[in-house]
Amino acid sequence: MSIRFRLTVMNFMQFFVWGSWLMSLGAYMIVTLGFTGSQVGSIFATMGVGSLFMPGLTGIVADRWVNAERLYGICHVLGAGLLLWASTVKDFDTLYLIMLLNAMVYMPTIALNNTVSYKVLEQSGLKVIQTFPPIRVWGTVGFIAAMWIVDFAGWTKSELQLYISAGAALFLGCYAFTMPECPPAKPDGKRSLVSALGLDAFVLFRRQQMLVFFLFAMMLGAALQITNAFGGAFLDDFKTGYPGSFGVEHPNLLLSISQISETLFILTIPFFLQRFGIKKVMLISIFAWVFRFGLFAVGDPGAGLWMLVLSMIIYGMAFDFFNISGSMYVNLEANPRIRASAQGLYMVMTNGLGAFLGTMVAGAVVDHYTVGGVRDWQNIWLAFAGYALALGLVFPFVFRYRHDPAKMAAAATAH
User: Fold this and answer.
1) Nearest-CA neighbor of 155 among 18, 16, 312, 20?
2) What are the tens digits of pLDDT across the range 336-351?
3) Can you give the pTM of this predicted structure?
């Protein structure tokens, strides 16, 4: 098999594991288990807690001691066991603990997936900036496939979604051990204490440009998890006013339009990064989030279905233009010796601090606008849109970045 195909399978399964439950677990917890908004927000915040330190630690281990592809496989095998356990649990405290442990082994694999992909492509003499996006797009296809399987099987409010995810994780964990070796980088000369501890990536914070970039990536990471946690419950609450409507009957299919949009926008990343640079690309992403939440506030599964669909389409730009572009930007700016650690640090900021703060605050906002069990989704989504708008107004004034098309073009053609 060609290396591109093998990486395509790996990326497909990486996000199939996540897509099996990420968009529907919130509805399962609220509708089937009867959890509150704050409890759902807390469980989704476990991804943030797990990302606070685990991606950084695994990045250090992959940079120093253990092959990245082996560490990647071990994490997925452990995750498979935890997801099976989660499928048997009905109480909040135990499920919280299990999902926290699962987050600690799954969230690092997102950064490790990028690290393995980048290393294998470079070892094969392929151009990362041009070659990786068409491979990564299959990760989104995997996410969509998992959502559709769960939706068509009628498992969006069932624990069976966790069985699908566990089986996929076990397969991927075994598959990872067949990937080309990605050994730790050989040290060049005498190591400092900071280097020996694997904390090199934190030197990126010394550069004001990178510090601001990481801070805004963290705040955008907060926006990302909001619709993941509450999108399914939002659509389910239309069941009284719009019974039998497409959005109510097939919430995962409607939400999957977001991921379909991702597949299209991922392919535009090389053009936008080289033409406009990371600053304008991030700014586009921020204002896309404003429209994403704003359209949710005014849309419905009836006459307003087109607004929900448009929101799903805009999501692809909102997500890709900060998440995927940001990862590639970090890979470009970091020294090759610390790239795994730098990817782990990026995960800490976006899916760690950002996701934790975002889901915890979002859960509180949902409960604030819930009276007598009825959630005021319009005000909930408008609050989130206002947050994104504030980020968009501040970002261009504090992120001092001068785009160098020549440098980006050189990176695109470098092996």
Assistant:
1) 20
2) 777 767 777 787 788 7
3) 0.73
